[in-house]
Amino acid sequence: MALVAVGVSGGISAYKAVEVVRLLQKAGHEVAVVMTRAATRFVGPLTFEAITRRRVVTSQWTPGANADIEHIALASDAALFLVVPATANTIARLAHGLAGDFLTSLALATRAPVLLAPAMNTHMYDHPATQANLATLRSRGVHLVEPGEGYLACGWVGKGRLAEPDVIAAAALRLLAPSRALAGRRVLVTAGPTFEDLDPVRYLGNRSSGRMGMAVAAEAAARGADVTLVLGPTAVEPPGGMRVVRVRSAREMHAAVTEARDHADAIVMAAAVADYAPAGGPAGGKVKKQEGPLTVTLERTVDILADLGGWRAGRPHPVLVGFAAETSDVLAYAARKRESKQVDLIVANDVSQAGAGFEVDTNVASFVTASGTQSFPLEAKSVLAARIVDFIAARLAPAASDRMVPA
Ligand code: CTP
Prior knowledge:
The strands form six sheets. Strands 12-11-8-13-16-17-19-20 form an eight-stranded mixed sheet, with helices on both faces. Strands 2-1-3-4-5 form a five-stranded parallel sheet, with helices on both faces. It has helices at 16-26, 45-52, 69-77, 88-95, 102-109, 122-126, 128-139, 165-176, 211-222, 250-260, 304-312, 330-341, 381-396, 400-403; strands at residues 3-8, 30-35, 80-86, 114-118, 143-144, 148-151, 157-161, 186-191, 196-197, 203-204, 226-231, 243-246, 266-269, 276-278, 298-300, 319-326, 345-350, 362-363, 365-369, 372-375, 379-380. 34% of the residues lie in helices and 23% in strands. The protein contains 14 helices and 21 strands.
């Protein structure tokens, strides 16, 4: 049982928040409601007070709101902050970090996951300002329950209708109780760059931070998997709760992956592995400068992912996931890569886009599988990581026929 903070903002669908609160309570959770002033014009705070048996804060200036421990503690005690409905105005305030009322202050103060259920007129929803605000929130890891399409209370038809209460409650429950679907499964993830030494003091490297692979590893571990992270040289600290194998070069990474692959149920190659290394290995001593240009001969490294694809050929196990960083024709190149490397999923990034690729916490990605492609908006690497782990969990889930127990 967890404490859920439910923020209600002022839209005609505010009454549906009552049903969402009841569904969360039915699932065994405690709910504390905060309302914007506008919300109180649509539903009375008494309704929420009666069903939650807790005082409902409607203003930062309500006597007690800043003194009473229960409300101060809400930011730290809540396991989830759900805003239902989230109006265009509230979404804008959240995107810009405004803190003019209790609901928005709570959003800044809490470290709990935030889930928004937007609801508004369809043109307000489609407006570039609202879409930009939603993109900003998404890129910070805020979760969204997409509004539905249909006949809106304002008489218009289109997207903007609050998702159904059971859909919102289900999304909240998923965030409250992360699935343990990967318990007993072994997941091998590579992350970070590789450094190919030229001599004892110089190397060829790349700008990968390892954040994407670390996010996948953390998500798999959170779902119960036994995770091994093969990590190239990066200054970013890896998450806890997993075995970390530090490597430096493509050759070392290949050896570490080859050693672990037999036991893996899924392998995610998120590392930015060098395609070339100095031929014959690094020079034994420091290379001295000389007059004129210096020519360094490079040789191809082993393509670890392609090697895994060839090794697995003809079998569905382990699940193989690779990445493709492209600057043009993203989906076409990614599809070719998926086929040539014989893997299940290529996560393709257009690294020419702002907010995608190395050194940032966000990504803009598409999934390329044998059955087609699916593109996602700019979102936090943690959200993309959850999608990748969803894919793995679905592939590893026993088929319905395997689950059937003979009579
Ligand atoms: N990869 C690998 N071993 C290598 C090189 C890449 O396992 N020696 C993996 C990466 O971890 C990633 C995927 O292959 O999952 C990237 O494919 P790759 O063809 O190397 O991508 P690019 O380097 O972007 O390829 P290209 O330069 O040909 O576009």
